Structures are given as C-alpha cells and as structure tokens.
C-alpha cells in the first residue's frame, strides 16, 4: 500500500498542477483583454479581433484545466477511499502503474484516458459517482465562436469608452482614434 500512497500523492499533485495551469490561462486571458483595448483605441480592429480570439481560447483552456483538475481530484478521493477500505484490486494496480508518467506529462487527452480507466475500475468497486462525466471532448474546440469574440470586443470597447463603429481603414490613424488614445494617456 505504500506504493499506492505515492500514486495518491501524485494524483493530488497533478490536480494542483492542473489548477495552476488554469490560473495561468486566466492571467493570459486578462493580458489579451488589455491588448484588445489598446488595439481598439488605435482603431486597429483586425489586431483587436486576434486578441479577442486569443482571450476566448485562453478562457476555454482555463475551464478545461479546471474541469480536469476537479476530475483528477475526484479520482484521488476515490483512491483514498479504496486505500482506506483496503479494496485496491489487481486490475486497478495495473492502471496505477501507468499513472505517474501520464500525470507528469500534463497532456489533457492522456490524463483523460487514464481517468477513464480509473473510473472503469471504480465502477466495479461501486464507488463511481454521478458527477464524473466526460465533458472534455465537447469543450476542447480549436475554433473560437465568433459571437463570443464579437461580444468580447464590444465589452472591451465599452470599458475603454470607445465606439466600435468607428472602424478605420487599415493603416490609417484618424483624428478620432488619436484623440481618444491621447486622452487616455
């Protein structure tokens, strides 16, 4: 069981690491939002749109990391219960062995597959809970929904006190854009 205690520690550590990655993505999202405002102030809507897409992507990644952290955490709690009850089966021991390298990789797909194996083992132990469903697949999208991007652009423009309809032709800085930018400084 000392071996399992080490695996339990690694599960808890992985949950914290995933949580940390989620917070990093939150910070990146905030940084991208600041860049959106600057781009809008300069009247550069194309650059603002790119930063809006990045912000949405970071937000989705943060959610994915947080969701996986909760999932790993729940499995850790189940392992803890199984260890306490002395119910670690032979089939589970096999899955536990492949765990360390996978958790250290921080690869969401591999961790998700590993959690699937764990959860399957726990079904036989009747410790499976309702809340653990595989929602990763439908949230890890590479495309950013345009309506979210448009809403974020509008929100950033509102916060900066700017009108999004003042879109200027590329490469041209009008007096409106400059006066607003200099007023901000």
Describe the structure.
With about 180 residues, this protein is mostly helical. Among the domains are: about 1-90; about 105-140. The protein contains eight helices and no strands. The chain has helices at about 1-40, 45-85, 90-95, 100-105, 110-125, 135-140, 145-160, 175-185. Helix 1 (about 1-40) packs antiparallel against helix 2. The longest helix has about 40 residues, at about 1-40. Mean pLDDT is about 75; it is low at about 125-140 and about 165-185.
Give the SSE layout.
Elements (H helix, E strand, L loop, with lengths): L1 H40 L3 H40 L5 H8 L1 H7 L2 H18 L10 H4 L6 H14 L15 H10 L1
Helix pairs in contact: 1-2, 1-4, 1-7, 2-5, 2-7, 3-5
Q: Given the structure, what is the number of helices?
A: 8
The structure class reads: mainly alpha
- As a percent range, the share of helical residues equals over 70%
Q: What is the first-to-last residue Cα distance? A: 63 Å
Number of strands: 0
Residue-averaged pLDDT, rounded?
74
Helix-strand topology string: HHHHHHHH
Cα-based radius of gyration, to the nearest Å: 23 Å
Estimate the strand proportion.
under 5%
In this structure, how is the largest beta sheet organized? none
What overall geometry do the principal axes of the alpha carbons give? rod-shaped
Poorly predicted runs are: 126-142, 167-185
Pfam families: Snf7
GO biological process, one term: vacuolar transport
Family: Belongs to the SNF7 family.
Protein name: CHM1B protein
